[in-house]
Amino acid sequence: MSRAIFRPLSRALSTFSHPRILRILRNPMSRPTIPLPLEQPIAWVLDFDGTVTKRDTLDALVDIAAEAKPKDTISAAWKHCTESYLSDYSAALKQYAPDSLPTTVEAEKELLEDLKEVERKSIDRVSASKIFERVTAAQLRYGAAKAVKSGRVQLRFGVNEFLHHVLSQYSQQDHSPSTVGILSVNWSRRFITACLQAARASFDKPLPEVRSMAPEFTVNTVENAEVKELHQAHSTNSPKHTEAPLWMEIFANELGGLEDGGHSTGKLCAGNISILSSHDKLLYLEYIQDQMSASGATKPIPVIYVGDSWTDFDCLLKANLGICIRDDPMTSSQRMLADSFKRLGIQCLHVHEGKTDKWGVVWAKDFEQIKEWAETEFRL
Asked: Taking every pair of C-alpha atoms in the chain, what is the biggest distance, in angstroms?
């Protein structure tokens, strides 16, 4: 089995195969009936907006608040927040890259972290606008289901078949399964959950149902103090399981108040959970890797990260293999990431070409292409 497309496996491990995190619920036959043995399982980590979905879902999330509170001036408030964000973003780029954009990977990472302040200001602005104040978890579920049914939120082509393929795989050595998780800067984990659950009904072969549980973080095994603090917060604020069964673990932000089963306070990224930037996503990916490394696994589990935008930059380079989603023509977010790789001299060939440079990044149009590649790459 070829591994030429992967960077060294010692760079990335995953907790997603931990048996306490991944459980098949209700019907064990929700997996395909013919399991596929592998030399070892694969841990897949997916971005949500623009990757699992065809387009960004932020407007759909705001629409839920607008429909839940028709007497409020949500549209005007959201327009102000959007215009202010774009203005701040443009000003920040001029401040941190006045002459030209970076030409080295490290400088690019520094710029992305500098731009996090724009995201933080935007979060504070939206929170102060009270757009999501008094929105309930039930309204989020209903609104997400409506958005999926109307086509406002659509999953990318091939997602369902890809997930069935991945979740049918297991290690020939110890029977541990290949796994899938979502890592997102989206403002509501419950919204992501509801969208995925609503999408199940649209498939002839429903998405597999898997329990989504908060990882049992063991922070004393992590050397990076920033990662310790971040994931101690995640383990403290995340429920042990979501309101309904899921088919994957989801790492994302949440609206304040919903964790306690009440109305939203309107505050975004409530508590200590805050995933705003490329670096924030990297911290979660690194923690996932460190946890498995500390568990004493005898054989490293390769991590494949799939994303579409600049906020996926660090994770795409950190994983054993990074796969960029690209439409034809590319969206503005996809183009920004593609331009970044080109500017930095990072090779990004199509996944079917089967080769990368030292950064290990390729691209694919959709999950059908990724599944086709995986079927060939990981065949015993």
From this structure: 60
Which architecture characterizes domain 9-55+155-377 according to CATH? 3-Layer(aba) Sandwich (3.40)
Q: Where is average pLDDT lowest: 39-43, 50-54, 116-120, 346-350?
A: 39-43
Q: Are 189 and 250 in contact (CB under 8 A)?
A: yes
Q: Is residue 171 very low, low, confident or very high in pLDDT (cuts 50, 70, 90)?
A: low
Q: Are 17 and 120 in contact (CB under 8 A)?
A: no
Rounded Cα gap, residues 299 and 290, in angstroms: 14
CA 162 to chain centre: 16
Domain range annotation of the chain: 9-55+155-377
Which DSSP string corresponds to 287-343? HHHHHHHHTT-SS---EEEEE-SGGGHHHHHHSSEEEEE--SSPPHHHHHHHHHHHH
pTM: 0.83
Distance CA 317, CA 359 (A): 6
d(CA 335, CA 343): 12
